[in-house]
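Have a think about this chain, tokens included, and walk me through the fold.
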Amino acid sequence: MRSFPASTLGLLLLATPLSAQSWCAPRTADTGYVALTGVTLWDGTGAPARTGTTILLHGERIAGVFADGAQPLPAGTSVRTLPGKYVIPGLIDTHVHVGSDVSGEDARVRADRRLCRALLGGITAVRDMAGDTRALASLKRDAKVGDIAAPDIYFAALFAGPAFFSDPRTAQASAGETPGSLPGMRAIDSTTDLRQVVAEARGTGATAIKLYAALTPPLVGAVTAEARRQGMLVWAHAAMTEVSPMEMVEAGVEVLSHGSLAARQLGREGYAALVKDSSTGALRPLDGPPFDSLYAEMRRRGTILEPTLFIYSDERASLQRIAARITARAHARGVTLVAGTDSLGSGDEGPWQPPNLHEELRLLVSLGGLSTSDALAAATRNAARAIGATADRGTVEPGKLADLVVLGADPIANIGNTGTPAWVVKRGAMYPAGAAIGQ
């Protein structure tokens, strides 16, 4: 059995030149057994962190999790001793866009680098919330088989009313074809053959339908029912112009994005007045009915809320205050929350920076009232449920994918400690993370 102390492991990981190209060279999992020993493990199951833990990997899967020395290791196991390190499940950003403008900002070479830098920041899977499914299918395939160093990608096909397809973004994501005509970027109305278009959306490699704009409550309900019949998830903003948050929930949409939009439960005029007055602190309308009824129904149905606190910049501080209040209230009422950014971050050139998900986690704690463990759950266990991947991801348990983040400091003591990972394990392949390669 080969044994490598933590210091030697670091040297092995850093054996290649630290150019941007070498950072992003894809790695493969060890074909034998690898044991990470001496770690403190927060496994994402809801159990408290465990010190002195061994995580046994075999290929791209977790073969065992047990106390150090509690079980014999298979012959030939490579033992990597990591005293003082903390391990959490691989993080999942539940709201990114990496294929919206494939001929420009999201050109393949830039998307590859951006995804790699996110992986080095601890993100092992992402939920892409609509783009050019032709490009996303290629990225998804290459990330899954290890041809690129990138998080695994779960993406949606977008359905919206015909009026939406004058938006210039739809032309970018439908380049070469008429906006609204592609299976992954589809205009629908009451005459659409939903069985056919949902089947075509599945054929793109999408695992979900994103309902976006210019739709009515009956159409939202009809699409959601057909998508569920065909085994697809349905994701949407928390409200549309003609569809309230409660109507989204009652239709069966699984994940609602953007916490501020849940305030549209007040109606159009009530929402506009709230945004106008929120700078003065007048947020009392967000408490009590009709919101408690909304949260109760979300909890009953298992509807997930994705607050995206990160995207509300200083110029939109009023929306952040609204989203934070809704986040805190929904959390207190038992609604499941997930962590998403709407902006993956980390750039595609220059010094490595932590991806934006780490700031979202900080905001969920500082503004949304979550505990550090609840914030971690929002980016792991809950996020895996949002993408329909709980069989493979979200917790550190035998049989699941070996997606792990190795940290130098305790994230339960300080959620900011997620932002400086030492190593990242994705499908059993170990990468030097941002903190290891230098910033």
